[in-house]
Amino acid sequence: MADQEKFALKMIVDGKERNITFEELALSNNLAQEALVRLLIEKKVIEPKELVEMMAKVKKERYRTPDSMK
């Protein structure tokens, strides 16, 4: 069976349909997230330390184990 690429979504750009792969979508999301974080830090809305602390908090919440929930 030949590899069939799965698409995350379809977009219409300049009247032409374009399939977006999951890899392209992930890269686009990553670039947008990095740009947003840079802007927030440059405009002093957040401090890098706050971002790192929040990332640790989210990671802890997301990757809970049954033992950590006791």
Map the helices and strands:
Layout: E1 7-13, E2 16-21, H1 22-42, H2 48-62
Antiparallel strand pairs: 1-2
Overview of this structure, please?
This protein has 70 residues and is of the alpha+beta class. Helices cover 51% and strands 19% of the residues. It has helices at 22-42, 48-62, and strands at 7-13, 16-21. The chain has a two-stranded antiparallel sheet with strand order 1-2. The model has no long low-confidence stretch (mean pLDDT 91).
Strand order of the largest sheet: 1-2
Beta-strand residue percentage: 15-25%
Largest sheet: 2 strands, antiparallel
Tell me the overall shape: flat
The ordered H/E elements are EEHH
Structural class: alpha+beta
User: In DSSP terms, counting alpha (H) and pi (I) runs of 4 or more, how many helices?
Assistant: 2
Query: Roughly how much helix do the residues carry, as a percent range?
Result: 40-55%
Stretches where pLDDT is under 50 for at least 5 consecutive residues are: none
- Strand element count: 2
Q: Whole-number average pLDDT?
A: 91
Which value, in Å, is the CA radius of gyration?
A: 19 Å
- What's the end-to-end separation, in Å? 47 Å
Key features?
single chain, 70 residues, alpha+beta, two-stranded antiparallel ribbon, 2 strands
Explain briefly what this protein structure is.
By secondary structure, the protein is α+β, with helices and mostly antiparallel strands. The chain contains 2 helices and 2 strands.
